[in-house]
Design a protein that fits this description.
Blueprint (H helix, E strand, L loop, with lengths): L3 H12 L5 H12 L9 E2 L2 E2 L3 H10 L7 E2 L2 E2 L1 H11 L13 H12 L8 H24 L4 H4 L13 H9 L4 H7 L6 H16 L21 H11 L20 H13 L10 H7 L3 H16 L8 E6 L4 E6 L2 E11 L8 E10 L3 E2 L2 H14 L3 H4 L2 E5 L6 E3 L17 E4 L10 E4 L8 E2 L13 E3 L3 E3 L2 H9 L10 H10 L3 E14 L3 E3 L5 E3 L7 H9 L5
């Protein structure tokens, strides 16, 4: 006679229903019908986030599973957990994609023969797998965070990527298919891959001891101080100081020598600091940012890459607002780099993409109404000669009704933001706020690139000093690149450009082709030489993105 435990085991196996192919399809149908009633779609005890897509997808295929042949998992399903775990490398959290629940149901299925698998567990595994893949694919292709929800200054509109074809190919492929299909959805630009590599290097620093460089007096080349040994260690860890540049003699480790000064300058350049080799308060603060904080900074900026279209344009202009630079790209190469001045924190430059179609040499400046009353009016009140000295015209009306007003007839003290019926236009000239050129990519924010007579601003490290537009350090060079060169639809030689500028007459020049302009915001990026750069979050935009990345997907 069989023992009681053995009998219980046999009864348990007998009670498990024999699985028929139709069972899973029926259970999938019943599960998805929850969407027709109040409640949320769940599987394996977890909420499914792509329920509407799943309903359409499975209805179209008669509710047949895609990850299973009858009750036998396809090869691709075995590779899905590893593909989800790899989200860690992209700065995302694998726990957000059902990893633990999926591993649990797959382990339960593996513990039983195919004929004794519960159709409810197979259904859980099927729906968890499809939801995890679609959700992760969506976040790889379009980003996890909706930028419009975390910052009102982001206007990067783009169409959602269609992901069902990727799901079908992944589920029907081999064990490596989920990983390869997901990887194909990531940003293809080398700059994104470089951030991923830097993320791995920063995480490696966590395995070692991270001791802050001690506070103390400013350190300069030629100084001797015990803290200098800590400084050497930190710069070696960050690869700014080559290991072969560290002195072999113990007594020399505390001396601030020339190789150490070069390493400090390299570090300062990478962190948006004045490269003077002087370790003062700001440099010391940057040196002591822990790896955990840099990891979060890298994750935030990898997410920003996922918000962008895969194709930025063969020729395009990219402005990094936080980095204070403009990069001109052609055929995958940077052909020009310029310093720029961007909006002050209370007049932020928005993030969006436009298409540059024309430029204006010797532009006049039509002052926006808000700036006329906020900036110009106070100066007019203080100085009766301000308008004349700065070359402003006072106008009322538009077009044929435009009327030029004598400034002496206006009671400027009586005017205010709600009672300012005039327009101000500054004529071309050396004091014009737009300088020698403005570069137009029409947009609703009235933002464009332009020159400036305030040339001293470009020598500053912190260049958040405009009213929202982007001031470029070499406008003539940008104009020449846009207009002078082989294959330019609207050719204009640099000699003609300079003659036009010398004439001082406002001249509009159509480009003949639209050049994409991307106004972006990166606080961390990797240059072509492999060096990673970190800069201050001038608009305090990183925290909201970081918080959203670490939260579970929204309901």
């Amino acid at each position: 006679m069989k023992s009681v435990p053995a009998l219980v085991m046999l009864l348990g196996l007998w009670l498990v229903p024999t699985l028929a192919p139709a069972d899973v399809a029926e259970r999938i149908r019943h599960r998805l019908e929850v969407l027709q009633a109040p409640g949320e779609l769940e599987a394996g005890g977890e909420r499914l986030y792509t329920a509407a897509v799943l309903q359409d997808f499975y209805e179209a295929r008669g509710y047949r599973p895609i990850w299973f042949d009858d009750a036998t998992p396809r090869a691709a399903l075995a590779g899905l957990p590893a593909a989800i775990a790899a989200a860690h490398n992209e700065g995302l959290l694998p726990a957000h994609y059902h990893l633990a629940a999926l591993e649990t149901v797959l382990a339960e299925l593996a513990s039983r023969p195919a004929t004794q698998r519960d159709s409810r567990v197979v259904t859980d595994a099927e729906l968890l797998a499809s939801d995890a893949f679609l959700l992760l694919a969506k976040h790889y292709a379009d980003g996890k965070v909706d930028p419009g929800q975390v910052d009102p200054g982001w206007f990067l509109g783009r169409e959602d990527t269609v992901l069902v074809p990727a799901l079908e190919q992944a589920a029907r492929g081999d064990v490596g298919a989920p990983a390869s299909m997901l990887a194909a959805l990531l940003p293809p630009q080398p700059a994104y891959a470089a951030l991923r590599e830097r993320l791995a290097l920063q995480r490696a620093l966590l395995s070692g001891e991270w001791t802050p460089v001690a506070q103390g007096p400013t350190l300069r080349e030629g100084d001797s101080d015990e803290r200098i040994e800590q400084l050497r260690r930190r710069l070696t860890e960050l690869a700014d100081l080559p290991e072969d540049a560290v002195p072999a003699q113990a007594e020399a480790l505390t001396h601030f020598d020339a190789p150490l000064a070069a390493a400090v300058r390299r570090f300062q350049r990478r962190h948006g600091l004045e490269a003077d080799a002087v370790v003062g308060a700001r440099t010391l603060e940057a040196l002591n940012v822990p790896p955990e904080a840099r990891i979060e900074q890298l994750r935030v900026n990898m997410e920003r890459w996922r918000w962008l279209p895969a194709d930025l344009g063969n020729e395009h202009i990219l402005v990094n607002i936080a980095g204070f630079f403009m990069s001109v790209m052609a055929d995958g190469e940077e052909v020009m780099r310029q310093r720029v001045v961007v909006g002050r924190p209370y007049r932020r430059t928005p993030v969006f993409t436009g298409r540059m179609t024309y430029l204006v040499l010797n532009p006049s400046w039509e002052v926006p109404h808000s700036l006329a009353v906020q900036d110009q009016l106070p100066q007019i009140r203080r100085d009766p000669d301000y308008l004349r000295d700065m070359g402003f015209q006072v106008l009322r009306g538009w077009g044929a009704q435009e009327e030029r007003i004598d400034p002496a007839t206006v009671d400027w003290q009586a005017l205010g933001p709600r009672s300012f019926p005039y327009r101000l236009r500054q004529s071309p000239g050396p004091r014009n706020a737009l300088g020698q050129a403005k570069f137009m990519f029409p947009n609703q924010y009235n933002v464009y690139l332009h020159d400036t007579p305030a040339r001293g601003l470009f020598a500053r490290e912190d260049r958040a000093a405009s009213s929202g537009c982007i001031r470029v350090s070499d406008p003539v060079g940008l104009a020449e690149w846009l207009l002078d060169g082989p294959g330019r639809p609207q050719a204009m030689s640099r000699e003609r450009i300079r003659r036009t500028l010398d004439q001082g007459v406002e001249t509009t020049v159509r480009l003949g082709r639209a050049v994409p302009v991307h106004l972006l915001y990166w606080t961390a990026w990797v240059e072509a030489d492999g060096q990673v750069y970190y800069v201050r979050d001038i608009y305090d935009r990183d925290p909201a993105v970081r918080t959203a990345l670490n939260e579970a997907p929204p309901r």
